[in-house]
């Protein structure tokens, strides 16, 4: 088929069979006219005189781009289809091997009923959208629909393999799941107070920010998170490394009791193994232990979770993000360095202290956090030791060595 894009004294030919050729002459040759009459499979585009030159180039570009886009789209669809089939087989093989899991398996139709056709959206996570719903027995539930475009089914497997078989007061409970074709979802117990992040970062202005909880309550929340992590590391048949401990992944129930959630990046390992192999860093910037970026800092282990807990605990103490470039004083940008310098120099912590006893709690939480973020993993306490430190009093704690160097601060801030 011959497609004419314009009329002029010069032309170009794009041939499917011969590839891309540009032929420039002063007239249209007889051969091209013959191709036009016989339906030979070429595309002919004329290059116009200067006054219409742009129009033809635009037309040619659009045609070529559209054709290439079509080819890319077809190839992408084929690859995506094959990838989705592989993922479905991977998920089904996993579920076949874990038939004894406690969570119920729901169909997609069940989820539509549970969520009222997905009417009540309550959040957006790293791997999908969360909806509020109610199970047939009347129990409130949160349904996370996992986005197929993110991951290869491994995050779904991680969640079911980890919290599908455990139960702890400070770990969110998995009530069920859905794996139907390309649709995958996780059904959790519903947490009416959402995440800890919502409360400790509630105000953008640090000067006007009021603490959402008393220091006593903050200590209780920290204790709950620590106990949940200790259970993951020591209380299960296999050690569960979370790799994404942060305020957003700490949910709060109706009594503001903390529950660790979002096990999409979790990794299982035996308790005897002190080191785990990793092909790439995982987690959220600002909470990732340095050894996950470079083995020069040490081996990846359960101590990597301890580092994340320390960064989380400092944000609980400061009621602010650890890195805040909006502060007026440059020395206050990195909160861990700020709080360490003040404590090591015997200065006031600069925190909101209202009643007797609050300062002791604040100092204890800060010291524990600073021990947890020691640069060398071997210098960090285990979560069992962290629980003991939080349960004890301030007098039994010493301020740790400086956990970072100035160059490290600059690296993190950038």
TrEMBL record:
Listed PROSITE patterns: PROTEIN_KINASE_ATP, PROTEIN_KINASE_DOM, PROTEIN_KINASE_ST
TM segment ranges: 55-76
Record flagged with keyword Hydrolase: no
Locations listed in the record: Membrane
Annotated CDD domains: STKc_IRAK
Record-listed ATP binding positions: 144
UniProt main location, coarse: membrane
Membrane topology recorded in Swiss-Prot or TrEMBL: Single-pass type I membrane protein
Domain Protein kinase: from-to ranges: 116-398
Entry GO terms, CC: membrane
This protein's UniProt keywords: ATP-binding, Glycoprotein, Kinase, Membrane, Nucleotide-binding, Serine/threonine-protein kinase, Signal, Transferase, Transmembrane, Transmembrane helix
Entry's family note: Belongs to the protein kinase superfamily.
Full protein name: Rust resistance kinase Lr10
């Amino acid at each position: 088929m011959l497609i004419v894009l314009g009329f002029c004294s010069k032309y170009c030919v794009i041939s499917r069979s011969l590839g891309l050729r540009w032929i420039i002459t002063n007239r249209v040759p007889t051969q091209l006219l013959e191709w036009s009459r016989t339906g030979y499979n070429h595309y002919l585009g004329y290059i116009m005189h200067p006054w219409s030159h742009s129009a033809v180039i635009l037309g040619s570009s659009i045609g070529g781009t559209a054709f290439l886009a079509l080819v890319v789209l077809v190839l992408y669809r084929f690859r995506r289809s094959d990838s989705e089939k592989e993922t479905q087989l991977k998920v089904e093989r996993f579920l076949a091997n874990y038939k004894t899991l406690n969570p119920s398996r729901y169909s997609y139709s069940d989820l539509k009923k549970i969520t009222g056709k997905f009417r009540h959206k309550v959040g957006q996570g790293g791997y999908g959208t969360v909806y509020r719903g109610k199970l047939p027995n009347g129990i409130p539930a949160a349904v996370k629909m996992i986005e197929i475009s993110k991951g290869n089914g491994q995050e779904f497997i991680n969640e079911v393999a980890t919290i599908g078989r455990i139960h702890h007061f400070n770990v969110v409970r998995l009530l069920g799941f859905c794996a139907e074709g390309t649709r995958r979802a996780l059904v959790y117990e519903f947490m009416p107070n959402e995440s800890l992040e919502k409360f400790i970062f509630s105000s953008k202005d640090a000067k006007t920010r009021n603490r959402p909880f008393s220091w006593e309550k903050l200590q209780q929340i920290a204790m709950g998170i620590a106990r949940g992590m200790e259970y993951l590391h020591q209380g299960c048949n296999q050690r569960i490394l979370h790799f994404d401990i942060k305020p957003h992944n700490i949910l709060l129930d109706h009594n503001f009791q903390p529950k660790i959630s979002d096990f999409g990046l979790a990794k299982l390992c035996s308790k005897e193994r002190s080191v785990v192999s990793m092909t790439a860093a995982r987690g959220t910037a600002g909470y990732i232990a340095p050894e996950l970026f470079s083995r020069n800092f040490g081996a990846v282990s359960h101590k990597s979770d301890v580092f994340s807990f320390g960064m989380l605990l400092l944000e609980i103490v400061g009621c602010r993000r650890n890195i805040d470039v909006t502060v007026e004083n440059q020395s206050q940008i990195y909160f861990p360095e700020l709080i360490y310098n003040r404590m090591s120099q015997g200065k006031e912590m600069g925190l909101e202290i209202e009643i007797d006893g609050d300062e002791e709690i604040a100092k204890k939480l800060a010291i524990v956090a600073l021990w947890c973020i020691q640069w060398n993993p071997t210098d960090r306490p285990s979560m069992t030791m962290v629980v003991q430190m939080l349960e004890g009093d301030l007098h039994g704690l010493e301020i740790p060595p400086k956990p970072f160097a100035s160059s490290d601060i600059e690296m993190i801030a950038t």
